[in-house]
Design goal:
By secondary structure, the chain is mainly β. It has two domains: 129 residues, Sandwich (Immunoglobulin-like); 82 residues, Immunoglobulins (Immunoglobulin-like). 2% of the residues lie in helices and 47% in strands. The chain contains one helix and 17 strands. It is found in: Cell membrane. This is Ig-like domain-containing protein. Pfam families: C1-set, V-set.
Amino acid sequence: MFFLISSDASGQRVLTQSAVTYMNLGSTVTLDCNIEKDEGNNISWLKQVPGSPPQHILYFYHSWSSPTDYGTGFSSSRFTSKAQGKTDYQLIISNAEASDSAIYFCQTWDDSSRSRLDTVVFGKGTRLIISEANLPPPSVTIIPQVPENLADSDTVTLVCIANKLSVSLADLKWTSDGTEVTSNTYSISSYLSITGREWKADKVYVCTASQGSTVSALWWS
């Protein structure tokens, strides 16, 4: 049997998940996934810690009373799934732990594909960050990579690295003279490319890292 794996292809169904969720230790977490339409296929939930392969959590279908086929390390005492109607699914994590910080994906099958291959469709994932109410601020470093004999049309890359993180995920964003220039990267390193002309303009570039309610920022000018 052959499979076609897709996260969002034209003509195929789209699984919708929120981008990021912050929760405190010990709380109950609810992650949502809209599968667009019901074709009689169950969905599965997967957990991925950056740098590691995805882990299967469970299978669920809206007509079932409870999930089935839990993955290794996951149990019904803390992980379950529910459905609101036939297309809105939820992964529920009880008594959240710091190790639950990860990216969570929902996955199902797309029977409407014109291909003869069975198509596996994934959501884009929700980044779940579990933290204590008061975390220490991360340490931020900016490393510029500037070509020799810089011309206005050359590219300068600013590398922002966040260290001393208490969880495996953090928000990083860039601003230039107070204006945000990229979207959140939700990782522990971020790259900003600018032109040589912009580099010579003496603008102030700021990399801001946050985990939970704590924020650190570093300026470069």
